[in-house]
Every structure is written in C-alpha cells, then in structure tokens.
Model the fold of this input.
Amino acid sequence: MPVKEFPKHNTSFFAGLGASLVAIGLGIGSGEFILWPYLSAKHGFGILWAAVVGIAFQVFLNIEIQRYAAVTGKSAVAGFLKVSRLFSFWLLFSTLAGFGWPGFASSSSFLLSHIYSDKPFVWLPYVLLIAAVLLLVVGRNAYARIERFFRYVLPLSFAFVFFLVWYYFDAGVFQDLLKGLLGQGNGYFWLPKNIDIAVLLGAFAYAGSGGNLLLGQGYYILAKKHGMASYGDTANHLPAETDKSARHFNGLRRFIIIENILVFGAMGLVTILGLSYLGPVLLGTAEGLGNNLQFLVLEANKIALDLGWWGRSAFLLSGAVALFSVQLGVFDTLGRISTDIASTKKEFWYKASIIFQGVFGVAVFALGIREPLWLITIGAVCNALAMAVISFAVLWMNSTHLPKLYRPKIWEQIFLFLVGSIYTVFFIVTVVTKLS
Done:
C-alpha cells in the first residue's frame, strides 16, 4: 500500500480546538450538571474521587480514539468495521440502548418549564426533540454548527458556574470538597452505604462525555483535518515510518494530549466540582431531594432569594441548554455511526437515522416514560458497557492495525486494558446488585 509523509501540524492551538470542546459540551449536560451534583447533594463530597478517575479514563480513551483517526484518516468506527462487520450491530444497539432514551430532552424540558411554572409543560419534550432533529437534518455541515454552538455556550456556562461558586464561597464547605477528592466523606470513606450503585455508575460513565459519544472524537478530528485527514480521502495510503513523519506525528500527539487535558479534562472536572459544591451550600441538607431533578429547582429557588429572578432563570436556562446540547450530540453521533456502517448514500443514512431517533423519542414520551433521572441513569449503565467494549476494541486496533511507529507504547496498552476491565467489572456489579 502506498505511503505519504505524516503532515506537520501547523494550526495554532486555539484554531485547532474543537474535538474536546464538543466532547466536554456533550458531558456538561449529563454527568456534570445532573448526576454528580445530585450525588453530592445527597451523599456529600466523599464520592467525588470517582469523578476524577472517571474523567481521567475518558481523557485517555479520547486520546487513543484520536490516535487511530489521525494516523489512518478514518474514524474509529470505520476501524471497528474493518476488524469485523459484526461491530455494526453492536454499535447501533449500544448507542440506542445508551442514548436512545430521550432523557436529555426530558430533563431540558423539565428545567425550561420551571422557569415559568411549577409544573412541567407536557408538550415541551416533543418540541425539543423535533428541534434537535431539524437542526441536524436541515442544511449541510452539522459539525460546524455544533462546534460553533459549543464555542458560545461553554464559556458562558463555565463563567456562570464560576460566578456562583465565588458568590457562595464558604471556606469550610470548600475544604470538605477537597477532602472528598481523597475519598473522605461525612462519616464514610470512598462510598456511603446507602448509595444507589446504578446512579453512581451512571455518574462515573458520564464523568466527561460517555458511551459511544466518545467515538465522536474520531469524527471531529477528521472534521478538523488533523493528521492524515488533511490529505482528504486516505483510504489507499498509510503514513510513512520516517523520522520526519515521527516528528510530525509527535507534534500533533502533543496538541491532542494538551487539548484533552486542558479542555476535556480540566474544564469537565472544574464544572463537576463547581456544580457539586453548590448543592450543599444552597440546600444545606439532603432531605427531601427524592429521586428526580427537583433538587436543581430547589437550588434555583435559593439563588432567586439572593440574586433575584434573573439568577434563577439563568441557572435553569444554562442547565436546559446544556442538556439540549447533549441530545443534539447524541443524534449527531448515531447519525455518523450509521453513515460509516452504510458506507454509501451517507447523507441519506445520516438524516434517516436522526429522524428515526426523533420518532423513537416521541414514542417513548407518548408511552408516558418521562422521568428524567431514571432515563439518564438507565442509559448511563448501558454506556458503561459500551465504554468497556470501546476500550478493548481500540486497544486491539491501535496495537495491531496501525504501522508500528504509530502504535501505543506497552504502558498505554496496559492502561487501556485496565480501563476496559474496570468498566466491565463496574457494569457486572451494578447489574448483579440490581437483580439481587
């Protein structure tokens, strides 16, 4: 097979940003805004060490998924299908099982409704699902619209959370949060006895992005024209194994690592910690939280007492927009996976899969299944298994299907195996616990 020199990464850092920005944008609406703050409000900060581990795992997975895309000019999904076409069934099933439940649209509508009313608007979830479908199927270049959306939404959301933490800063609570990063909770170490293991697994899986959404990292690297993707269609070319190519690859590799650590890892973790910090400060107690998103409304009501209606509305609106952005990203990711599987008539299959997801979501709502936290949790448990499969599949592809110069080092292979094993064990323990 003919080879080409691995291209030099000449793009500036800020111009090259995109893949991690989109990825963490998809995460802020799930684990960051809902599950981790919910667990912290209910059990204290002693479980936050798991958020650090969870987001570190995903940073590493992102980097390895991007390695394959940068070296081959093809997505990780295309690589899975080269290993075995059976992956097509798994990818479709696991994506639908993890994200087919329209929990993000339901959660977004719940928060939007409470800006104006004490009761959710019954019709709003349908409107949000249809809006997400239309944003992606009307026109071309959906990625450019998604990236542009996150370039505006993320900085505003991040700044608002930072402002709230500063406004409600309490040295004692902040000290407890730092202890929680080391596993020290209020009367427990590492895990409280009464924690719902499924919700914890959901939060662990959503510490960052989660599930097959991670595969979007490959698509977004290609959209940014990084690595071999800069040549366009590289189906019949491999990167040269020369010193010059190695230098160019290492330069791009450094950019990918720094981008993931600073944007995906740091922004994600700071957002988790900031929103988790606000729960105990605003609510003071876990009593009356229940098992739904009412705790966010209670936090918003406390903000209203201190900052007025604008603070309450801004808090609920930022959460609603973040959750809607995840629904948008879920539709886009499954659409891209479908096009890789179909390989022909890509635009048709992309739009058809998105319309199918919208119809499926409407059907779920029509059946009366609308509890936001339950929908997100069941999806997250499925996504933990999906990430285990991704870990092992990426390990196999990167270790055997890439030219030797571009393969992961032995310690990286060991860590990938460890990540996959931990997700697998966590999934099995959760299922056994729930069935027993």
Observations:
- The CA atoms of residues 22 and 191 lie 31 Å apart.
- The chain has a mean pLDDT of 81.
- The first strand starts at residue 3 and ends at 4.
- Residues 3-435 form a domain with the Amino acid/polyamine transporter I fold (CATH 1.20.1740.10).
